[in-house]
Design goal:
Number of domains: 3
Number of helices: 12
Strand content: 15-25%
CATH class of the largest domain: Alpha Beta
CATH superfamily of the largest domain: Adenylosuccinate Synthetase, subunit A, domain 1
Radius of gyration: 22 Å
Distance between the termini: 15 Å
Length: about 425
């Protein structure tokens, strides 16, 4: 079964958009399987940079069918704005399909997300306040509305009435906010329905049939392994399954459909929002990584926290995702450094951990144990083969492979598509 899953192997923002965009041309379907518009992928169309938050990167290729899977939560306003942006620059969205089982983000989800985050004060999670968490909460509580509900106004009203009976209580009595009305939301969402309903498909059956017929399918993840609701640094996580298992849950295909799992990792490490970050750098090197790497969020514009590569986290990502391959991005950002550090283990109150501690309190107290390697101090952005890289850069890559236990098959040495070295990928 020719299925490939792409996941973030760190805390997200690893450069998944470029790699998905680059690889999508080789696939018949590209499927987004989790998250919502709390994530962003930057892709290049001609001389134009485009930020995609919901639409799969496969939209860039006429030969590819882009699919938004059942594991996603969708703000219809954002989806339609993205479609309009793409059409404006000449990219057709006519092939875009949306699972009828994907859940809708409602206006009250956004209001509750912002209010809850403010209510937490200095214990805030660091959400994007786009309603993602509350939408997933309602999905699990079985009071969510789904994309397929847009096809039937009477059913939409019925389910919305039931949801608002609870949500308006929360809005008014807990947070002191104004309630929503069934009529106002129905009018707004039935307007969206006129354009979205033609995109709705039974994508679960469609993808299973396509893979059985030998079609190649690329499963595109958002966020990163350490933000996974089950396997991330809880509670500073997102609300969906970001690991490779999420591709199964979020699309409805079987586990045996997956042939490759590609993990995207930066040559250093970044994190947006709150939560522990053992290798974080708050010095001039950290600032240099921020500026040279352009470390500002695609979705929020927030500055990312930067630190040294953490091999402990990466080993964990290899194990929990079953990574068959790694793509190392932004290697060029390290080019000016004379010395590069790698975290190989943690010291927690005198005890050495070579795996991610099982208890969050231990992880919060983890002090990185570093090894140092010489930098290459030369521009590598023009390198197009592995052999052209300086020996120090190759040593760094090969040592990372040894530390994390998976091959680094792709290396990105710049933001453009052609600034990518395919080492062992096929």
């Amino acid at each position: 079964m020719p299925g490939t899953v792409l996941v973030g192997a760190q805390w997200g923002d690893e450069g998944k958009g470029k790699i998905t965009d680059l690889l999508s041309a080789d696939y018949d379907y590209v499927v987004r399987f989790q998250g919502g518009n709390n994530a962003g992928h930057t892709v290049i169309h001609g001389d134009v940079k485009l930020a995609l938050h919901l639409v799969p990167s496969g939209i860039m290729y006429e030969s590819c069918i882009p699919v938004i899977g059942n594991g996603c939560v969708i703000d219809p306003r954002v989806l339609l704005e993205e479609i309009d942006m793409l059409e404006k620059v000449g990219i057709s969205t006519k092939k875009l399909l949306v699972s009828g089982n994907a859940h809708l983000i409602m206006p009250y989800h956004i209001a509750l997300d912002g209010a809850a985050e403010e209510h937490l004060g200095d214990k805030k999670i660091g959400t994007t306040k786009r309603g993602i968490g509350p939408a997933y909460q309602d999905k699990v509580a079985r009071i969510g509305l789904r994309i397929q509900d847009l096809e039937d106004e009477a059913l939409f009203r019925e389910r919305l009435t039931a949801a608002l009976a609870q949500k308006n209580e929360e809005l008014t009595k807990i947070y002191g906010l104004e309630p929503y009305t069934v009529d106002d939301i129905t009018e707004l969402y039935m307007g969206y329905a006129q354009r979205i309903v033609p995109m709705i498909a039974d994508t679960e059956a469609l993808l299973s049939e396509a893979m059985a017929a030998g079609k190649r399918v690329f499963f595109e993840g958002a966020q990163g392994t350490l933000l996974d609701i089950d396997h991330g640094t809880y509670p500073f996580v997102t609300s969906s399954s970001c690991t490779s298992g999420g591709a199964i849950i979020g699309t409805g295909v079987g586990p045996r459909s997956i042939e490759k799992v590609l993990g995207i990792a930066k040559a250093y490490l970044t994190r947006v929002g709150e939560g522990p970050f053992p290798t974080e750098l708050t010095d001039t090197i950290g600032q240099q990584l921020t500026e040279v790497g352009g470390e500002y969020g695609v979705t929020t514009g927030r500055q990312r926290r930067c630190g040294w590569f953490d091999a402990v986290i990466m080993r964990y990502a290899v194990e929990v995702n079953g990574l068959t391959d790694i793509c190392l991005t932004k290697l060029d950002v390290l080019s000016a450094l004379d010395t590069i550090k790698i975290c190989v283990a943690y010291d927690v109150d005198g005890k050495v951990f070579r795996t991610v501690p099982g208890h969050e309190r231990d992880f919060e107290r983890a002090v990185p144990i570093y090894e140092e390697m010489p930098g290459w101090q030369t521009d590598i952005t023009a390198c197009r083969t592995y052999e052209e890289l300086p020996s120090q850069a190759r040593d760094y890559i090969e040592y990372l492979e040894k530390l994390v236990g998976a091959p680094i098959s792709i290396v990105a040495v710049g933001p453009d598509r052609d600034q990518t070295i395919f080492r062992n990928w096929n």
